[in-house]
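Appendix B, record 7
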Amino acid sequence: MDSWDLDEFQPVKVGDTQPTKPVTSRDLAGDPPEVTQPIRPVARQRRRRRRIWRGVRKPLVTVLVLLAVYFFVPWQHQILVLGIDRVPEGTTQGRSDTMILTGIEPLSGRVNMLSIPRDLWVPIPGYGENRINTAHYFAEAAEKGSGPQAAMDVVESNFNVRVGYYARVRLEGFPAVIDALGGIDVTIEERVLEWGPGTHYLDGTQALAFVRDRTGDDFYRMAHGQVFVTALVKKLINPLTWIRIPGALVATAEAIDTNVPVWLWPRLGLAVVRALPGGFDTRTLDRTMVNSWVTADGAQVLLPNWEAILPLVDELF
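Structure tokens (predicted):
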């Protein structure tokens, strides 16, 4: 039996006067998928996108609100910066010769700093009246690690301000941190040691000498400390310095300890960056806020004039 040639077979419907279009093997096999597959309507695609957006909108808004609260909630954080000098090897039993009460407020982008004289004569719980810088020493001698809290407690009780955090700098490890950062530039308005007025590059050893300089009185040293802290912060936020940060962190771990939690660092960092264009508000307890006095043992100390000090504290913190 002969096979049918489907390409030539042309069936005719009864009653037709016109021949129909020839049926081919392609017709019998069906149209290719690209012809028969339905095209998704544009409206359906839009509805799908809207459903996706509705699904992610609420979580996204929640995240943005939480970030806004985290960075800009109007809470000021008080940090007591302690510079501990000349301690016995392997201990932290030193006096806090540098004490800077720092207030950081992310919402306004303000950073306020108040330097406290080390010779300020105040009550030390359990030890009677003494220099304020001895609170750290007495506590560390009694129980290792308790010095920062003792220093914060003394500042709180005398200055009537809540101090939640501390940053303790052991000055013997200070040069390594500065060298790891590639040195630092400080700008001074009067002569300090061998440096005249102007901007000077200091390596780690020179920076330590700058901070430790005892040529003048305690007010002189406090001014140096504030100049240095401001210069250090500017160095840290310079993008050219960031490549040095890993090495500096290693050195910092040996020289600085703090109870500021890691989750708070971005919030504080943003406030510091925002404050730099206008500068930090740096203050000291000047000579009008204290009275020189000599103790029965012949020690020269400073008696606080709280009527002059507390209004300044209220303004800053």
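Remarks on this record: The chain has eleven helices and twelve strands. The chain has a mean pLDDT of 80.
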